[in-house]
Amino acid sequence: DRIFVTYAWRAPVNGNDAPTGGYVDEFDLDGRLVAHVGQSKQLDEPWGVALAPRGFGRFGGNLLVANFGTGAINAYARAAGGWTFRGRLPVKAPGVWGIAFGNGAGAGPRTTLFYAAGPHGWHGATEVDIHGVLGAISPD
Fold this sequence. Notes:
four-stranded antiparallel beta sheet; mainly beta; three-stranded antiparallel beta sheet; 47% strand; 12 strands
C-alpha cells in the first residue's frame, strides 16, 4: 500500500498557485519517501491521483495524475523503483479536482474514470471557479 501526495507551487508575491509546475511524491505507510512521480515540467497543479485498472486501454496499470491547471491527465508506469512518464490521456478535464475509477457496481464500471472539476477563469488577478462538472472517461 502506498500514499501519493500532490503539491502545487505557490507564487511568492500573491500566494496564488503558480501557473505551472508541482510534483507528486509516493510514500509508504510508515511515511518514508519511496519515489518522486513526474517532473515539474510535466505537471501543472496536480490534484487527482488514481491507479488505472488493467482494462483501461493503453494506460491500463498506470498511475494517472490529473492536473488542475491544464486539465491534462498524465500517465506514469512503474519502472526501476520509480515512475516513468508514458503520455497523456487524449482528453482534458479543465479545473479537475479529483479522479477515481468505478467500483463495478453502483459507482460505475471499473474501467471508467470519473472526475470532478470546476472549470475556472480569471477576474482580474483573482481566480474564480465557474461551474462544477462530473464527467466520465472510458478506455480507448
